[in-house]
Design a protein that fits this description.
By secondary structure, the protein is α/β, with parallel strands linked by helices. It has two domains: 2-73, no CATH class; 81-283, Rossmann fold (3-Layer(aba) Sandwich). The protein has helices spanning 2-13, 17-24, 30-41, 45-50, 58-72, 77-81, 105-114, 130-138, 152-164, 223-231, 251-261; strands at 83-86, 89-92, 119-124, 143-149, 171-175, 187-192, 236-245, 266-271, 277-283. The protein has a seven-stranded mixed sheet with strand order 5-4-3-6-7-9-8, with helices on both faces. Strands 1-2 form a two-stranded antiparallel ribbon. The protein is elongated and about 75 Å long. Bound molecules: S-adenosylmethionine. S-adenosylmethionine binds at residues 98, 100, 104, 124-128, 130-131, 148-151, 154, 177-178, 193-195, 213-214, 224. S-adenosylmethionine binds next to helix 8 and strand 4.
Length: 284
């Protein structure tokens, strides 16, 4: 009897999912709060909605509080979860990689329209590997894939992602400052989402926990693309497609830079879902 009572009083001190969410409403946006609790429970988000009466253990509450502290300190949900979905695939992220953004998926849509058998394909500044791995996963043609990054830590994450997606035998990874260490080869598809932010844009609060090496690119944000476009002409196949992600404000300037290096190329701009110019498509 006594032990049954103890159990009952213990349960009384344990809030249900519903009670806990009500008590913490206001700490975060409702959707984020649900996601954080699901994470603390090691469950999918649906669990929260299906089992609102489920009692929470003290260790779950402790891990929730730890996660909440980190979230409020500016760590994004993807970093807390350790992964981010991109092009329908799951990519591990780390403090050394940029979190893949949905707008970069446009690059894959465009690259897939251009694929043919036996192309050399390169992704410069691969980060998590989200671009090249998504392309390889969806490309029905045979191709040789090369992924590069200046960051060894990012390459390690990209390799792990390749292994998890069963693509490790198909993709070569190489540490290189842009094309410096890239063997003489002709690439049909070049993808690059290199850093493109200005020092002013870097102050944006939501990106404070992401690696600077993945974001900052000099006064006008085009330092890396300028250098890359100087190097690229020697690496292009007769028929090629280059896809670069940029800031909408950079489109006039990047057009000039491309024209100076590749005067014959066709230059187009693609808009993201927010209707902002996001991708430069250069082709011949
Ligand atoms: C904006 S992140 C993009 C990552 C990934 N491609 C994506 O779309 O999510 C830029 C990446 O370029 C890498 N990077 C920065 N400077 C570089 C350089 N000089 N050469 C090669 N990679 C570089 C960074 O380490 C980072 O992984």
């Amino acid at each position: 009897m006594a032990s049954r009572q103890t159990k009952k009083s213990l349960n009384n001190s344990r809030p249900s999912i519903k009670e806990f969410l009500q008590k913490n409403a206001g700490a975060l946006e409702p959707q984020e709060l649900d996601q954080l609790l699901a994470l603390a429970l090691h469950k999918k988000i649906e669990y929260i909605y299906k089992k609102p009466e489920k009692l929470l253990s003290h260790s779950t509450i402790l891990s929730f509080k730890k996660l909440l502290r980190k979230r409020l300190a500016g760590w994004s949900l993807a970093y807390l979860k350790g992964y981010k979905e991109f092009y329908g695939l799951k990519f591990l992220v780390s403090k050394n990689t940029l979190i893949p953004r949905p707008e970069s998926e446009l690059i894959i849509d465009e690259a897939l329209k251009f694929t043919q058998n036996k192309q050399n394909i390169i992704d410069i500044g691969t980060g998590t590997g989200c671009l090249i791995l998504s392309l390889a996963k969806n490309n029905n043609q045979t191709a040789s894939y090369l992924a590069t990054d200046i960051s060894l830590a990012a390459l390690k994450t990209a390799r792990t992602n390749a292994r998890k997606l069963g693509l490790n035998k198909q993709i070569k990874f190489l540490q290189s400052n842009l094309l410096k260490k890239i063997p003489a080869k002709k690439f049909a598809i070049v993808m690059a989402n290199l850093p493109y932010l200005t020092p002013q844009q870097l102050k944006e609060p939501s990106i404070q926990k992401e690696p600077r090496l993945a974001l900052l690119a000099g006064k006008d944000g085009l330092n890396y693309y300028r250098q890359l476009l100087e190097q690229l002409p020697n690496y292009l196949a007769d028929k090629y497609l280059i896809l670069l992600e940029i800031d909408p404000a950079q489109h006039e300037l990047i057009k000039k830079i491309i024209k100076a290096q590749l005067p014959q190329a066709k230059i187009e701009f693609l808009k993201d879902l927010a209707n902002n110019i996001r991708i430069v498509k250069v082709s011949q």
